[in-house]
Amino acid sequence: MGLKIVLFLCFLGVSTSFAQQMFNVKDFGAKASPQNEDTQAFLDTWKAACSSGGEATFYVPEGTYYTGALSFIGPCKNLTRMTFTVKGTLKAFTDLGKFAKDGAWIMFGWVNDLTVNGGGVFDGQGTASWGKNKCGNQKYCNLLPTSLKFHASKNVVLQDVTSLNSKFFHIAVLQSTNFKVTGVTVTAPGDSPNTDGIHIERSVGVTISHTNIGTGDDCISIGEGNSHVSIDNVNCGPGHGISVGSLGKYPYEGDVDGVTVTSSTFTKTTNGIRIKSWQASPKKTLARNMTFDNLVMNNVQNPIIIDQEYCPSKRCGAQTPSLVQIKDVTFKNIRGTASSENAVTLRCSSGYPCQNLVLEDINFKYDGSATWNYVKGHELPAKAFCSSVKASYKGVQIPPPCQ
Ligand SMILES: *[C@@H]1O[C@H](CO)[C@@H](O)[C@H](O)[C@H]1NC(C)=O
Ligand SMILES: *[C@@H]1O[C@H](CO)[C@@H](O)[C@H](O)[C@H]1NC(C)=O
């Protein structure tokens, strides 16, 4: 008898704490029709969900919804969890007038304990605006909207969704803490401008796993001020690889501390792992404690590259070295084919040479089949280039160390 009562009370306790409220965009006027703008319906749905209590689900059923800028702002004070479930496809308007300059298509800000999931698609419809991107070779310019921007949020899970053809970055994680990305697909053509897959800035504790990214810029870019970033089981390509940086562009930048990239594959990307910092950076910062382990590169132009003379506009005062100090970096068990002969490039700052750089079990073939003088059957040797660094080497080294 006593046991029965306890079980009954437990059941009551569980059922109340799991009380879920569902907020369906269709109940707030979303039409899922190309003739209809569903922006306001989505904002109204958010307002209702965010001001409810317990656990709320923002629900987007099957269908294709057209919207302009959507700002989903917290804090949602009485919620223990917000689940944002997209079964359908959201399409961003092609008219750039519907978005703020340097803004986002969809932004979540100050929302803690958020899960975005559901198997749906965020289609930025970027094809129409890529030609209007003027940021290619300019240091300062107005940016097109990022598809999914997360700002100042804690305990976020982004899971099982697709980002397609963003106008600018696909996903940006800014000033956030404990952020998990898993089972996400990112897709855009290899020649689409500035379509970084996942950009991380000023965040702590970001993990990205089991994610496929093919896009026109960095698959993942780890910007300034991040710590404890952990990436595993990512497929990258096409794209520019996984980058730490660019660092050293602005005076307010923070250090990068603690990055691991493991068990990932790069296919036909321009870079594999790249650490880059601007020449003539305005302030001394650190980029340290990074491990890159168990990575396979298939036909990658620059599989391992540190470039501290980054200056795409050629207007940053070439004589001034980068002030970003790179230290405690290990490249381990990295192998495959390079599509250019420089498989390993370690171009460190002449002002602050890289410290404690370790290369262990590096094995690259140079696949020269794309070069004019390629002779079938004659394997070309891969090469390593270094400046301003004394790396230490363990295990296999192909190409041989460059000092
Ligand atoms: C949270 O719930 C309390 C108690 O029910 C209520 O008074 C308050 O207005 C709610 N706050 C918000 C932001 O909804
Ligand atoms: C280095 O980074 C790892 C992974 O983020 C972290 O667990 C570790 O505490 C860091 N070590 C130091 C000495 O900062």
Topology:
Elements: H1 2-17, E1 20-24, H2 39-50, E2 54-60, E3 64-67, E4 70-73, E5 79-86, E6 89-92, E7 104-109, E8 114-117, E9 121-123, E10 146-151, E11 154-159, E12 162-164, E13 171-174, E14 177-182, E15 185-187, E16 198-201, E17 204-214, E18 220-222, E19 227-236, E20 242-247, E21 256-267, E22 271-278, E23 285-300, E24 302-310, E25 324-338, E26 342-347, E27 355-366, E28 383-387, E29 392-398
Parallel strand pairs: 1-2, 2-5, 3-6, 4-7, 5-8, 6-9, 7-10, 8-11, 9-12, 10-13, 11-14, 12-15, 13-16, 14-17, 15-17, 16-18, 17-19, 18-20, 19-21, 20-22, 21-23, 22-24, 23-25, 24-26, 25-27, 26-28, 27-29
Bound molecules: 2-acetamido-2-deoxy-beta-D-glucopyranose (NAG) (2 copies).
Summarize the entry for a quick read.
It contains 2 helices and 29 strands.
In words, what does this structure look like?
- The protein is mainly β.
- 7% of the residues lie in helices and 49% in strands.
- The protein is built from two helices and 29 strands.
- It has helices spanning 2-17, 39-50; strands at residues 20-24, 54-60, 64-67, 70-73, 79-86, 89-92, 104-109, 114-117, 121-123, 146-151, 154-159, 162-164, 171-174, 177-182, 185-187, 198-201, 204-214, 220-222, 227-236, 242-247, 256-267, 271-278, 285-300, 302-310, 324-338, 342-347, 355-366, 383-387, 392-398.
- The strands form two sheets. It has an 18-stranded parallel sheet that branches. Strands 4-7-10-13-16-18-20-22-24-26-28 form an eleven-stranded parallel sheet.
- Helix 2 links the parallel strand 1 and strand 2 (54-60).
- The chain is elongated.
- Mean pLDDT is 91; it is low at 1-18.
- It binds 2-acetamido-2-deoxy-beta-D-glucopyranose (NAG) (2 copies).
